[in-house]
Design brief:
Strand content: 15-25%
Helix content: 25-40%
CATH topology: Spore Coat Polysaccharide Biosynthesis Protein SpsA, Chain A
CATH architecture: Alpha-Beta Complex
Structural class: alpha/beta
Number of strands: 9
Shape: globular
Length: about 250
């Protein structure tokens, strides 16, 4: 049996309500989106940036073209349909969903998820498989990934109807009885869920900028990074009060 194929889909838009333009904001000399792509190159997978047809996202397409990054444009609000359309033109057995506001993403947790998906695919190739490290959170917010099989994406595109399902892409996959047949949760040995390293506010940007400037030596090693988080409380005090919006908000 051939090994299953994987492709990275990075969801990006300029019209963030709390921090507009954040995905192209300059971070350590490069746009935030650059770091998401750069830090997942270790996976060795084809990568596509999925943005919208809204004129505000012309900047994302222009940046992608300039940097020879594959870009797909679709619906602004129906993000699920954007993924379904992109998958029609970029076939794979599995898609890895990342968001462009997580510039400190590490490849190691994703690689662990890929291994689980390969194992289940070998057992039952047509199974609707979903894998994530964020359903029952033990990783810092901002190191999130979701992997889903192509047939699960197709089923979700056909059956999901509620606005929150269309906007957030994956809730139907892991909440609906018609969603995933195999649900995999990747967990960390230590609960690090209280750390916030995603970019949604100015406070978040200050945290991430400080990590890039003051803790850069820890960014090459996932274990070094996670083992030292508890020593950086003065940095995380900057955004510990930020409320993360839920899928129903």
């Amino acid at each position: 049996m051939d090994k299953p194929t994987f492709r990275v889909f990075i969801q990006a838009r300029m019209s963030s309500t709390r921090l507009p333009g954040k995905v192209l904001r300059n971070l350590n000399g490069q746009p935030v989106l650059f770091w998401v792509i750069d830090r997942t190159k270790k996976l060795g997978l084809e990568t596509t940036v999925l943005t919208s047809n809204d004129s505000s996202d012309n900047f994302i397409q222009e940046w992608c073209e300039k940097n020879e990054v594959d870009c797909f444009r679709g619906s602004l609000n129906n993000v699920l349909y954007r993924f379904v359309e992109a998958a029609l033109n970029r076939p794979a057995d599995f898609y890895i969903r990342l968001t462009a506001d997580c510039p400190l993403i590490f490849s190691e947790p994703i690689e662990q998820g890929i291994k689980f998906c390969r194992l289940l695919f070998d057992q039952k190739p047509n199974s609707k498989i979903f894998c994530s490290n964020s359903i029952c959170r033990s990783y810092p917010r901002g190191l999130d990934f979701e992997i889903f099989s192509r047939n699960l994406l197709e089923t979700t595109g056909q059956m999901a109807k509620d606005n929150y399902e269309l906007e957030h892409v994956t809730p139907f996959m892991y909440l609906s009885p018609n969603g995933a047949e195999k649900l995999i949760q990747v967990t960390h040995s230590t609960d690090l869920s209280n750390y916030r390293i995603t970019l949604d506010t100015e406070e978040d940007f200050r945290v991430i900028s400080k990590i890039f400037s003051e803790k850069k030596k820890f960014l090459a090693s996932f274990s070094d990074f996670t083992n030292n988080l508890s020593n950086w409380n003065s940095i995380f005090d900057l955004n510990k009060h930020i409320h993360q919006k839920g899928i129903y908000e």
